[in-house]
């Protein structure tokens, strides 16, 4: 037996920690003893039933997990291997990792870099891995330190916090946008050169605005993303990976056809293995573990529901790790 955060709808929605056994697990060729999980925005949506994230019931929450292989019929994995799971519909259509055990598909797993403990890997989680995908996309577009200011929206969130730390470590001048003025010192501690009020970006704006940003990491969407695009300098790029403000994009084609701005869509859920491995290798190289600890809060599995509620209420900064063992 092991404990799992189970989401059910029979017929009323519930989210509760339950004792289950291996028979409760789905099909898969690798069984992992999960040591740590985490709470991402999507986990918050699922656990609070704020959005129809879950599409199979009952569901074990948790789109991320880090632990050790205990059983495998796949040749690339053997008992004792340290692995990471991010995405692939886990916690949505396949029972997830907010549990003592998870049964997963071998092709979903990434070998945990030796630089990170299981806890640190989950302090990064999908949010931090997505931030690294954004940085890689901007680099492929040609962004280099010295090109100008780089904007990070939703900067006190999981994606934003890691993006600020990464970009600053790589030598960029980072401007962090947040609605939490009291967190300015936190963001400056991560490396932000300046902090602006998210209200400057959150309302409807002109199709073309004064050029400012060499690049943008946006986890917010809606008017914030539209305004960010309208403010990007000629030839710059925006990496879009989130929808905290909304799924809409009330924008104009003007920045794209008059300034050559590029909008780079970032998907972390189904990203191919090679890109995942590259992201984790770069995280191991470029993310300061001390800064990672500064942005991390720890809860137990029993505290995950309450933490998810705080996350959705905007009362959390940085990352939440969940001890599942």
Write the topology of this structure.
Elements: E1 2-9, E2 13-20, E3 30-39, H1 41-47, E4 59-60, E5 64-72, E6 82-86, E7 101-104, E8 109-111, H2 118-141, E9 149-152, H3 158-169, E10 173-178, H4 184-190, E11 194-197, H5 199-202, E12 213-218, H6 222-231, E13 232-240, H7 254-258, E14 262-265, H8 273-286, H9 289-294, E15 296-300, H10 304-312, E16 319-323
Helix pairs in contact: 1-10, 2-3, 2-8
Q: Report the portion of residues in β strands.
A: 25-35%
* DSSP, total strands: 16
**Helix content range:** 25-40%
Radius of gyration: 19 Å
Distance between the termini: 12 Å
Q: Extract low-pLDDT stretches.
A: none
Major β-sheet profile: 7 strands, mixed
Task: Provide mean pLDDT, rounded.
Answer: 97
Tally of separate domains:
2
CATH topology of the largest domain: Quinone Oxidoreductase, Chain A, domain 1
CATH H-level superfamily of the largest domain: Medium-chain alcohol dehydrogenases, catalytic domain
- What's the helix count? 10
Structural class: alpha/beta
Outline, from the CA principal axes? globular
CATH architecture of the largest domain: Alpha-Beta Complex
Q: For the record, what CATH class of the largest domain applies? A: Alpha Beta
Report the order of strands and helices. Answer: EEEHEEEEEHEHEHEHEHEHEHHEHE
